[in-house]
Amino acid sequence: MNEYEEKLNENKNIILRNIEQGKKAGVNKVSAVFAISKRDEIRKNMVTDLAIWLITDGYKVSLKKGELEILTIEWD
Q1: End-to-end CA distance of the chain, in Å?
Q2: pLDDT of res. 54
Q3: What are the structural domain ranges in the chain?
Q4: Measuring CA to CA, which residue among 67, 75, 19, 69 is closest to residue 45?
Q5: pTM of the entire predicted model
Q6: What's the pLDDT tens digit per position in 10-67?
Q7: Does domain 3-74 have CATH number 3.30.110?
Q8: What are the phi and psi torsion angles at 49 (to 5°)?
Q9: Which pLDDT belongs to residue 65?
Q10: Which of 31, 34, 39, 69 is 20 to 30 Å from 61 by CA-CA measure?
Q11: Residue 9 Rama label (left phi>0; alpha psi -120 to 50; beta)
């Protein structure tokens, strides 16, 4: 497993923990905030890969780009 895949899996685990905490708290939405340099293509790709993974798993995902990238994850 290369460094990118390790970091991607680490972020997936963090997001899954946050989703579980949200479900236990009775909410149906959490956000993940990423600070990414405009020139950092690897991290931009990671956010895209995370969004694809979440959509594939049945979550509704929106991505807001600006100074920070905010990935909002919703479920029923």
Answers
A1: 33
A2: 97
A3: 3-74
A4: 69
A5: 0.87
A6: 999 999 999 999 999 999 999 999 887 777 788 889 999 999 999 999 999 999 988 8
A7: yes
A8: -65, -40
A9: 86
A10: 39
A11: alpha
